[in-house]
Amino acid sequence: MSAQEPSAQGPSAPVPTRPPRAPSPALEVVVSVLLGLVSAATALGAYQAANWSIEAGALHEVSQELRDRNLGDYLTGALAFDDDSTKLAQAIALEAEVQLDPSREGEVRAEQQRLLEAASPGVAQQWQAWVEADFAPEAVPLGDAYREELFLEPASANRASALTYELAMDLEHRSVTLTAAAVVFALALLLLGVAGVAARHASMLVLTGGGALAFAVGLIVTVATIL
After folding, report:
1. In the prediction, which pLDDT does 1 show?
2. How far apart are CA 66 and CA 72, in angstroms?
3. For 107-140, what is each residue's pLDDT tens digit?
4. DSSP string, the chain
5. Over the stretch 132-169, which tens digit does the pLDDT of each residue have?
6. Of these four, 49, 94, 137, 196, which has the most CB atoms within 10 Å of its CB?
7. pTM for this structure?
8. In this structure, which long-range contacts are made by residues 177-183, counting pairs with CB atoms below 8 Å and at least 24 apart in sequence?
9. Where are the domains of the chain?
10. Residue 2: what pLDDT?
């Protein structure tokens, strides 16, 4: 066969291609429903996170006020304890004067009584009980019971402040978790939004599945955090 002779087979016929399958109406409905659910869940999470953030801020203020009160009450109690300790030491010194100079007992007792009555409520009664117990070490005034009562309010304010702070931090952590869930919902909205304009059924199906998965993850995190 010469180079000028035409081919016996002729030109090859084009291979027929299959047109892409259009998205089904049912899948479009699913995408629309998921978009609505994701939008609602996002709004709910954002609303709850904002409320928790506001509540956490208010609790932080209460905690700070309680800490300030605890500090003030503690300093007041410490000053009262120092003053009572000084008066008790002076009363003991006057008691020694009575033993050394019985002739001045009336004058010394009057001064002693004045000192004890100027101390915190209950110190004079504690002194009297100590005298009646013949100055036994276990009955000494300003003991454990006295200190517990004196510092009860500061300790209570400090404990309340710590509990309030823990509650505020818990609300802050929950708010941050809901914010993270909102990011997952945003990803779901992006995937579902692209799926809504996809021209092929397969692409729309894959994007819808990804959006549904992201929505499920965000929903689980949101419900677990709120509950």
Report:
1. 45
2. 10
3. 888 888 898 888 888 888 888 888 888 888 888 8
4. --TTSPPSS-SPPPPPPPPPPPPPHHHHHHHHHHHHHHHHHHHHHHHHHHHHHHHHHHHHHHHHHHHHHHHHHHHHHHHHHHHHHHHHHHHHHHHHHHHH-GGGHHHHHHHHHHHHHTSSTTHHHHHHHHHHTTS-GGG-SS-HHHHHHHTHHHHHHHHHHHHHHHHHHHHHHHHHHHHHHHHHHHHHHHHHHHHHT-SSHHHHHHHHHHHHHHHHHHHHHHHHHH-
5. 888 888 888 888 888 888 888 888 888 999 999 999 99
6. 49
7. 0.66
8. 177/221, 177/225, 178/45, 178/46, 178/48, 178/49, 178/52, 178/221, 178/222, 178/225, 178/226, 179/49, 180/221, 181/45, 181/218, 181/221, 181/222, 181/225, 182/42, 182/45, 182/46, 182/49, 182/218
9. 27-226
10. 47
